[in-house]
User: Fold these one by one.
Assistant:
Number 1:
Amino acid sequence: DAGVTQSPTHLIKTRGQQVTLRCSPKSGHDTVSWYQQALGQGPQFIFQYYEEEERQRGNFPDRFSGHQFPNYSSELNVNALLLGDSALYLCASSTRTATYEQYFGPGTRLTVT
Amino acid sequence: AQSVTQLDSHVSVSEGTPVLLRCNYSSSYSPSLFWYVQHPNKGLQLLLKYTSAATLVKGINGFEAEFKKSETSFHLTKPSAHMSDAAEYFCVVRMDSNYQLIWGAGTKLIIKP
């Protein structure tokens, strides 16, 4: 049983560019949450997707957007990248009835130069 | 507003001695509380959770935590530290009215041989 997978593992982008990160949830899970973890800090909640819709959003600008597909996989898009967007981006999956019990992927390390 | 405070950024103990990682929260509602662990270059893993059942919660790898409402605390303990426990530990709170998880800044546990 595959756990949560994320791609790519590492990514280097230039300021102003756009990036797309991908996540496949654990088998049987239908809810996907995205987090940003800056170096030395705890994860910050970006948003959560369920039934292909954004269910809740944290304190992130509109440059951060997402999508969930019918197979429950998800994408995180970040436009107009800033140096401050450099971080580890974590995807977590859960079930609708236990959204608090989240299973995390290994993350995508984004570096913006 | 809800928040989580991990009182120590670093905790260093000798192998075989007890571990105590401290966490305080503020909440206007009945919270659900969690501890997650993040080993270097690995994804976040749920250690244990409190969701208004027994106040003493047992988790994986010999860890346990006690919910104390009067002290608004949820400290993580282990009787005897092992080298493999060296990692970053995060205290997390979820409000009943909210899907969002609020994360502490993390405590780095260092185990001395």
Note: Chain A is about 0% helix and 55% strand.
Number 2:
Amino acid sequence: KQEVTQIPAALSVPEGENLVLNCSFTDSAIYNLQWFRQDPGKGLTSLLLIQSSQREQTSGRLNASLDKSSGRSTLYIAASQPGDSATYLCAVSSFYNQGGKLIFGQGTELSVKP
Amino acid sequence: KAGVTQTPRYLIKTRGQQVTLSCSPISGHRSVSWYQQTPGQGLQFLFEYFSETQRNKGNFPGRFSGRQFSNSRSEMNVSTLELGDSALYLCASSPMRQSYGYTFGSGTRLTVV
């Protein structure tokens, strides 16, 4: 059974810091991995999608890496801003599940202080 | 391009009632999935519909059901509501199941009193 873990559960940093959020999964047979952000009481906003054959994806100040063999993904945020404050969730799609079902971690709640 | 639209945004229902939530996917997206989000359990998969057929189902009781129409719009229904059904219900759509990732709607906040 696939399990997804995110560490740390919460993180508070001063504005301008570079930071890394971690995501680990127990079964390496994944189809892809997706990072989302969620603002309080809102839906999920997709940040990056990494296919199982890829090692990393970049979008602006965000960079996500994937190491399937070790069951890990990291989300790197450069030069953090107060607007980056949100909960960040990673989710995996299992290779054998053939679609539709994302398995989510519990999220990392990020607070960026001005 | 319009995003995933969920209606209504907020609902308050009484225990024992039933409720229907609606999701309109992005135009051209054929896969629609539903999730329940609670503070204690996080995001949990309910079910997925593709081409009007349920393709995948999570571990929820039979009180939770859904359907998808020919225009890919989807509804989920919860019968005999319980207090524990209070949650944010999120819908996600994708062009072709898991290949292209998922886009989520803003959710429906259901409160059962």
Note: Chain B has a mean pLDDT of 95.
